[in-house]
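Figure S7 source data.
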Amino acid sequence: MTLVWFAAGARRWPDYREHLPEALAEAGVAARVVTKAPEPEAVDYIVFAPGGDVTDFTPYRRAKAVLSLWAGVERIVGNTSLTQPLCRMVDPALTEGMLDWVTGHVLRHHLDLDRWIRHEPGWHQIVPPLARERTVAVLGLGELGAACATALAGLRFRTLGWSRSPKALPDVETHHGEASLEAVLRQAEIVVTLLPATPETDNLMDARRLGWLPKHAVLLNPGRGTLIDDEALLAALDEGRLGHATLDVFRVEPLPDGHPFRSHPRITVTPHIAAETRPASASRVIAENIRRGEAGEPFLHLVDRRRGY
Ligand code: NAP
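Tokens for the predicted NAP complex:
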């Protein structure tokens, strides 16, 4: 019998108590899921989330994989005690959540919805451009970024995409590499940052790069807080160079009450809810990887430890 240690924390277990065993059974895996730390030698798979029950993986050398419930793995990827394969969460429901958040917030700014929700007095017929006349850039074309860029292009936005390696997506003008970032940002009326937190992406949107954006551009960050230089962002907004920032992720979470982002009139804060891991579908992803491990098939969604994502 395969032993799965749910080490993602007691707080999360009630959400998985039924779904995970059910998904394992559906995948045809004879497994026992436990929440209390078992004998290290007995553990076959570890289900992980930051803030859970395991930080030192050394005793679990026999484990065949560590399976993260989170898509972003910056809080585990540098753990030197981790020698087991690490798989991250790629879940259709998580992607759908991100699509909803990104398209919703892009349309908010595209249509200038705030103006009408505020009950602008008078009768100023300010007609927004058509979506195809609006340029949106998505930085990061992985599981989430590619889906968002494709959806935005489907809504007829002129969509640019940027990633580390070359990509081809229908109706999306793709660019890659550091050298092309300036050209992308200079056109981006709305920019969506969907990159992982790595040393290379830290402060990616600094004063210089924020300065490349067209005047009154809007920044949407559902990626990671470290992608943004917070001080530079506040300065760009205060000086009227940037129009608005909608932020879902922060360097410190929960975002402290007195943080300047909370009260800034041109910042919208959402509390890291853009794309939550959904236990039912996430359990199926975990179960499929365990099935693969047991069948000797390659794991899905393996993290490249060297790249950090
Ligand atoms: P992913 O599949 O790993 O894709 C990452 C993308 O970023 C890839 O296209 C990659 O380029 C690109 N990239 C990485 N480093 C780069 C660099 N230095 N320069 C240019 N491009 C670079 O990740 P994902 O599943 O789409 O998720 C993206 C991020 O979203 C996660 O890391 C996580 O931080 C965040 N997230 C947030 C929430 C939320 O609720 N707010 C939920 C889930 C995830 P290549 O394709 O060339 O490798």
